[in-house]
Design brief:
redox-active center, NAD, FAD/NAD(P)-binding domain, Enolase-like, domain 1, alpha/beta, 488 residues, binds flavin-adenine dinucleotide, single chain, binds nicotinamide-adenine-dinucleotide
């Protein structure tokens, strides 16, 4: 079939939509399209549900739930504050791992059935582009190839762990989150390379289960991607308050698996060797890279940016800044906020556009959370970006802080360590962003995300009543302080 961008005869295609990759991005796109009556095929080369369900959010949150209970029950000082004295806590590593594995299996199966019920055709194999509106699928197992066509193709092939040059993994003594989620053993001394989302969440799991952790961060402070004030406060509890030795400004330049594992640490500035560590195991948590190499993007002239597929805010794939007709990409492979709910939201936006309802994604209102104990969350602009926007648009930036130690519910829980920072436009009152560290921060951020999505003003938000006593009053206090700053 000749492609000229004007062809639109659904009946001449095998499907209306082919989705390549069945992670959260692909799943939401396929389900949304099938729910709207489109003929959908979804191609998956590995596990239905992708990273989040099989090797990401789901198993890691199951491990965090179990290890979080262990931490709570083992925290004699915290319990004594309530007058509780518990017996020494015991746990079975294998049963914690089984809890995570069973949850993965249940969610994977539910998700597969949901797609089938919606009427999507699931094709097991590896997909690649075979020109415009065509995908070749190499069937898993048989290796048989066949090319299918669709009016629209959505690429949702996700990402995989990035392992820097010089670091050798063996999956047992030096591993990434792909293996860590299986919790196959508990090293006495674990080094974690990277202090981002994965490094922090697994440091939470492993220290709760009694491991000693050394955290290695190349940039000049730990948790470099988080708001600096929030990171400072969070580090006090999540790092300094635990069995963690954190080193910033050092690069893990060579890691050799074995017993012990050897790590060469170099000074980030001078690149000189500063120390060689010998530990029982290493978790490499140094970011993720897009899975795009096998997609044969050259067939449609698309050039990736460090492997990421360029898209616009309607999720159309771009070549030289111009959209390629009928080609879409969603999720981690686009490199925009690599989160499961971002992937899902992008999937829905792509399909809405396919259905003819023009829609753009609003990244500013997408929240993010790290599920440590306590949690860290954020939405909207960072303080630095908000300052830049204020300068560019000529308004004064407002900033207020609300503390968990002034919140009755947090104090009742003996969890007074926490802070929320709210950023807003001092002239209009519009909420620009928020950053939280504290008990249930991941749930608290949603209220602010909704306000950002609606571009609401703190003047309106400050009048809305919050239940007493709840942690949500931390947000209410921030809104009220901000409203006074706007009005005054
Ligand atoms: C340890 C960990 C914890 C995380 N925790 C959270 C969390 O708590 N909250 C959150 O929001 N995010 C979390 N994330 C991030 C989240 O998992 C990802 O953002 C999300 O999975 C991205 O979804 P996706 O659909 O873009 O890609 P993926 O989930 O990576 O799915 C892509 C799918 O495409 C398949 N595929 C690839 N190439 C092909 C091909 N050529 N043909 C056919 N199929 C192909 C892959 O096998 C895969 O199944 C976590 C990630 C990790 C690693
Ligand atoms: N709760 C969640 O939503 C959640 C949880 C886990 C993962 N994720 C997603 O997965 C992605 C990947 O997470 P991540 O923690 O691997 O990446 P990250 O980008 O958040 O952090 C990686 C850290 O490793 C450091 N680093 C890189 N190379 C290094 C080296 N050689 N030596 C020392 N330090 C080095 C970086 O400076 C950075 O601070 C995240 O961006 C996030 O989108 C989300």
């Amino acid at each position: 079939m000749r492609f000229d961008g004007s062809l639109f005869d659904g009946s001449s295609f095998d499907y209306d939509v082919i989705v390549v990759g069945a992670g959260y991005g692909g799943f939401d796109a396929a389900k949304h399209a099938a729910d709207h009556g489109l003929r959908v095929a979804i191609v998956e080369s590995r596990d239905m549900g992708g990273t989040c369900v099989n090797r990401g959010c789901v198993p890691s949150k199951a491990l965090l739930a179990a290890s979080g209970r262990v931490r709570e029950l083992a925290d004699a000082e915290h319990l004594a504050g309530f007058g509780i004295h518990a017996a020494p806590v015991r746990f079975e590593r294998q049963k914690i791992a089984d809890h995570a594995n069973q949850l993965v299996a249940t969610i994977r199966s539910n998700l597969t059935k949901t797609l089938e019920r919606a009427g999507a055709t699931i094709l097991r194999g590896q997909g690649r582009l075979a020109g415009h509106q065509h995908v070749t699928v190499r069937e898993s197992g048989s290796g048989i190839e066949r090319t299918i066509s669709a009016r629209d193709v959505i690429l949702a092939t996700g990402s995989e762990p990035f392992v820097p040059r010089g670091i050798e993994t063996d999956g047992r003594t030096v591993f990434t989150s792909d293996e860590a989620v299986n919790l196959e053993w508990l090293p006495r001394w674990l080094a974690i390379i990277g202090s981002g989302y994965i490094g922090l969440e697994f440091a939470d799991v492993y220290t709760a289960l009694g491991c000693e952790v050394t955290m290695i961060e190349a940039l000049d402070r730990v948790m470099p991607t988080f708001d600096p004030d929030i990171a400072k406060l969070a580090a006090r509890t999540l790092i300094n308050g635990r069995d963690i030795d954190a080193r910033a400004g050092v690069l893990a330049r060579k890691v050799t698996p074995g017993c012990p594992v050897k790590i060469e640490l170099a000074d980030m500035a001078t690149k000189e060797l500063v120390e060689t560590l010998e530990v029982d195991a290493v978790l490499v948590a140094t970011g993720r890279v897009p899975t795009s190499a096998v997609l044969n993007l050259a067939a449609v002239g698309v050039e990736t940016e460090r492997g990421f597929v360029p898209v616009d805010e309607r999720m159309r794939v771009l070549v030289g800044g111009e959209p390629v007709p009928h080609l879409w990409a969603v999720g981690d492979v686009t490199g925009k906020m690599m989160l499961a709910h971002t992937a899902a939201a992008q999937g829905t936006v792509a399909v809405d556009n396919i259905l003819g309802h023009s829609r753009q994604i609003d990244y500013r209102s997408i929240p993010a959370a790290t599920f440590t104990h306590p949690e860290i969350s954020s939405v909207g602009l960072s303080e630095a970006d908000a300052k830049a926007l204020a300068e560019q648009e000529g308004f004064e930036l407002g900033l207020v802080r609300s503390y968990f130690k002034a919140n009755s519910k947090a104090l009742a829980e003996l969890e007074g360590e926490g802070l929320m920072k709210l950023l807003f436009n001092k002239a209009s009152g519009e909420v620009l962003g928020a950053h939280i560290f504290g008990l249930h921060a991941a749930d608290l951020i949603q209220e602010i995300a909704n306000a950002v999505a609606r571009r609401q003003s703190v003047l309106q938000l400050a009048t809305e009543v919050h239940t007493h006593p709840t942690l949500s009053e931390v947000v209410e206090v921030a809104y009220k302080q901000a409203a006074m700053a706007v009005a005054g």
